[in-house]
Amino acid sequence: MGMSRREVMERFRLAIQAGEYGPGETLPKAADAATELGVSKQTVTDAYGDLQAQGLVEMVRRRGTTVLDRKRERINRSRLVYRDDLGYYFDPTSAPWRLLEHFGIHREQPAGDIAELLEIAPSSQVLARHRLVGLPVDRKAKRPKPVPMQLASSYLPGWVVDQLPIVSEVYTGPGGVLDRIEEALGGPLNWAEYYGAGGATPTEAERLGVPPQVAVLKIYCVTRLADGRPVEVTVRTVSATKFEIGPIPLVRSESAHFPPSPATKPVPPDQGGGSGAPGP
């Protein structure tokens, strides 16, 4: 019995991880690999597609299947908000990033999760600002072209736009939208984050320069006024093949003080931790 699609995928995945195929190198043509492994060409093509979905390779017509660089940067969610001469930012990794492209500003009906975070009706209109940020051209750093890192989409409820029309402009002044909100509507602003993941949409993949359907991480940052009203949501989308989130320090609650109180209930044999969830 011939190898399955999964077995073919696993064979090449392990070969890539072992360094047999380095970044920029091309995997064997599907027809050649099919002959060598005794499977159909379609099986190899499907296996390569699975590798692409994992962010290991990129399949390009007439160029073949190329191994991608798997080096990851860490997005350090330290629960701190930072500021420099450009304004607020939310992790040290993004400090050198700059605006690469602005995709326009327009009113739209928000997705359900955005409406919920802004505490508005799903039928409401929001102002949406979509942009691409990353590393700009730097010939001294041998970076002859910009490197996309993150898609940032910001959504503002209609009442904020009505009170602060400047947020509808491409250039909103030093410090950007958040500074204008803090100046006009009162500070200090505060923030909370939520995390999600999924497959890249065709538009996201094209703008980030990653294969279609590659996994992406989404960070939803909700900005609130001092009185608790949400005034803005920014969704930051990055490729999960290039970034990971962490470390996020875990702090003991009072119930987990040290030294701990003795555990009194027996643990079932199929569990290795406390009552909340199996341990590691």
What would a concise description of this structure say?
With 280 residues, the protein is an alpha+beta fold. The chain contains 7 helices and 12 strands. The longest helix is centred in the first third of the chain and has 13 residues, at 5-17.
Structural features, described:
Helix 1 packs across helix 3. The protein is globular and about 70 Å long. 24% of the residues are buried. The chain starts with a helix and ends in a 35-residue tail after the last strand. The protein contains seven helices and twelve strands. With 280 residues, it is of the alpha+beta class.
Task: Furnish the topology, listing elements before pairings.
Blueprint: H1 5-17, H2 30-37, H3 41-53, E1 57-60, E2 64-67, E3 73-75, E4 82-84, E5 87-89, E6 98-108, H4 112-118, E7 126-135, E8 147-157, H5 158-163, H6 176-185, E9 190-199, H7 202-208, E10 215-224, E11 230-239, E12 243-245
Parallel strand pairs: 3-12
Antiparallel strand pairs: 1-2, 4-5, 6-7, 7-8, 8-11, 9-10, 10-11
